[in-house]
C-alpha cells in the first residue's frame, strides 16, 4: 500500500539515495535537501510503498506562487502512479492548506507529460549550463570597486531589489545562504549612485541566484566570481527568456548541457521579470 508523509530530517539520507537513483547521478543532494527543509519544513513529502521509501517531492511557498521540484521516484518503482500520487498530494497541500494556486516548476523532458496531466503549461525553458574547471580564465580583468561581498545588513535592500524580478520576496533564501552557509560566497554590485544593481551567489558549484538590472552588471559579477572560482567546475540554470544570459555564458566558457521546460499551473505571476534573472538558485527553489 502506498502512503505519503512529511519528509523529516532523519529521512535526508534515504531521500538523497532516491534522488541519485532517479536522476542517475553519483552527486549527493543532501545539502540541497537540508536547505529545502530549512526553508519549508512542512513542504516536502516522502512516498512509501509497503513502508519502504520510494519517492519524494516538495515545494517552497513564496506567497504569490510556489516553486515545486525534486520529483524523484526510484527507477524500479516508476510507471506505477507514484509520481502522480506525490504530485496530487503536493498540489492538495499547496492549494488547500497554503492557499497557493499558482505553482511553478522546471520539468525534464521525461517528466513534462505528468505535469501536463495536472494542468501545467509551458511558460519558458531553463538552460542547464556547465563550465568545466579546464575552461579558459583569460581576460577576466581586475577587481571592480562597484562589487562588494554581501553584508548581513544589506539583506533587506537586496530582498527589495530582487522581488520585482523574481516575483516575490525571498528573504528567507538570502538569509539561509548568508547565515547558515557562511562559506558560500555572495556578491553585490552597485551603480554610480550607490544603489544595488545586481547580485550573485556562489552556491556550491552553482552560480545562483543571480540577478542584474543591466547586462554589464551581470558580466562584472560573473568576471569577479570567475577570478575567485576558475579552478572548479561551475553550473548556471539560466532562463531562456534572458537572451543576454546565454550569450554571456557562452562568452565565458559555459556550454549548454540540457534544457528543461519551465511550467506553470494557475494564473500568471503578476510582477515578475525573468529577463533580468541570469541564474536560478536551483531547480527546486527557482
From TrEMBL:
Residue ranges constituting the N-acetyltransferase domain according to the UniProt record: 2-145
Superkingdom of origin: Bacteria
UniProtKB keywords: Transferase
Matching SUPFAM superfamilies: Acyl-CoA N-acyltransferases (Nat)
GO molecular function: acyltransferase activity, transferring groups other than amino-acyl groups
Pfam families according to UniProt: Acetyltransf_1 (PF00583), Acetyltransf_18 (PF18014)
UniProt key word Isomerase: no
Protein name as catalogued: GNAT family N-acetyltransferase
Amino acid at each position: 500500500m502506498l502512503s505519503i508523509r512529511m519528509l523529516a530530517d532523519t529521512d535526508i539520507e534515504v531521500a538523497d539515495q532516491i534522488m541519485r537513483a532517479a536522476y542517475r547521478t553519483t552527486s549527493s543532494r543532501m545539502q540541497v535537501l537540508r536547505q529545502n527543509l530549512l526553508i519549508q519544513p512542512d513542504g516536502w513529502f516522502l512516498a512509501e510503498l509497503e513502508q519502504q521509501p520510494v519517492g519524494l517531492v516538495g515545494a517552497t511557498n513564496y506567497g504569490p506562487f510556489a516553486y515545486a521540484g525534486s520529483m524523484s521516484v526510484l527507477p524500479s518503482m516508476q510507471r506505477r502512479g507514484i509520481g502522480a500520487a506525490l504530485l496530487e498530494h503536493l498540489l492538495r497541500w499547496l492549494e488547500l492548506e497554503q492557499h497557493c494556486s499558482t505553482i511553478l516548476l522546471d520539468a525534464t523532458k521525461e517528466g513534462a507529460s505528468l505535469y501536463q496531466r495536472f494542468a501545467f503549461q509551458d511558460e519558458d525553458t531553463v538552460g542547464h549550463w556547465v563550465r568545466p574547471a579546464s575552461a579558459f580564465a583569460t581576460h577576466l580583468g581586475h577587481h571592480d570597486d562597484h562589487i562588494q561581498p554581501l553584508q548581513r545588513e544589506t539583506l533587506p535592500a537586496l530582498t527589495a531589489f530582487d522581488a520585482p524580478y523574481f516575483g516575490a520576496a525571498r528573504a528567507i533564501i538570502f538569509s539561509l545562504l548568508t547565515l547558515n552557509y557562511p562559506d558560500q560566497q555572495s556578491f553585490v554590485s552597485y551603480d554610480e549612485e550607490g544603489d544595488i544593481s545586481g547580485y550573485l551567489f556562489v552556491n556550491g558549484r552553482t552560480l545562483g541566484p543571480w540577478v542584474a538590472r543591466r547586462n554589464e552588471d551581470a558580466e562584472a559579477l560573473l568576471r569577479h566570481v570567475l577570478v575567485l572560482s576558475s579552478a572548479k567546475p561551475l553550473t548556471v540554470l539560466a532562463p531562456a527568456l534572458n537572451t543576454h544570459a546565454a550569450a554571456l555564458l557562452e562568452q565565458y566558457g559555459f556550454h549548454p548541457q540540457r534544457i528543461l521546460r519551465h511550467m506553470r499551473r494557475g494564473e500568471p505571476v503578476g510582477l515578475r521579470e525573468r529577463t533580468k534573472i541570469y541564474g536560478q538558485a536551483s531547480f527546486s527553489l527557482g
